[in-house]
Amino acid sequence: MSESGSEVRKAARKVSTRQQDPEGTRQNIIEVASQEFALNGLSGARIDEIAAKTRSSKRMIYYYFGDKEGLYLSALESAYATVREGEAELDIAGLSAVDGLRRLVEFTFTHHHQHEDFIRMVMIENIHHGQYLERSSVVRDLNVTAIAHIKDLYERGLVEGQFRPGLDPLEIHWQISALCFFNVSNRATFSRLFARDFGAPDMLERLKQNTVEMVLRYVAKPGALGE
């Protein structure tokens, strides 16, 4: 078979795939684009490169997302949706507030470690002063849900006599995010500066447990942790 004939068949397979599974094609574009944006930023990512690594075409990317900024925003929305979906699947309704909060912190720490592209995209969006997220009602709605989960845990902890009064659920979310985010965003620099592998399994486990303890000590009333 000639090289041109092979290219025609390859293009035909791409068209067939798009026609059979448009949502799968769209998700494939977002997954590849997320990696490119996390690696190269909004300005450095190239639609040609993204198209070459997907089962789609440059024209189809523009069809689904309008332009590169539209694709970038969709990738951000997908990244936030993934973490919020994971939180929603946590089985914490039957746990005490302390144990529920512990499980939420453990999940967040592990999720961020396993989704480094998410952390890098959030860092890039902060470089852009959050201007693209500001356009997204999707992300705002997702994060309202996240705060609602913490608010529910906190209020249960107050009723159970485990948590101290006067705390803001949004600020609790901030502290959890800060501790778990830093573990990924600054791991490389800390490892080199202090000649210790902060990505080693035993170090990650210790850092996770430290993070859980710091959050719980911040929220819990004295003596509530059984000390």
From TrEMBL:
Keywords tagged on the record: DNA-binding
Disordered: annotated span: 1-26
Keyword field contains Glycoprotein: no
Chain intervals with Basic and acidic residues compositional bias: 1-10
Family matches, as PROSITE patterns: HTH_TETR_2
Domain HTH tetR-type: from-to ranges: 23-83
GO molecular function: DNA binding
Matching Gene3D superfamilies: Tetracycline Repressor, domain 2 (1.10.357.10)
DNA-binding region per UniProt: 46-65
Listed InterPro entries: Homeodomain-like_sf, HTH-type_TetR-like_transc_reg, HTH_TetR, NicS_C, Tet_transcr_reg_TetR-rel_C_sf
SUPFAM superfamilies: Homeodomain-like (SSF46689), Tetracyclin repressor-like, C-terminal domain (SSF48498)
Highest taxon of the lineage: Bacteria
Identification of the protein by name: TetR family transcriptional regulator
Species name: Devosia ureilytica
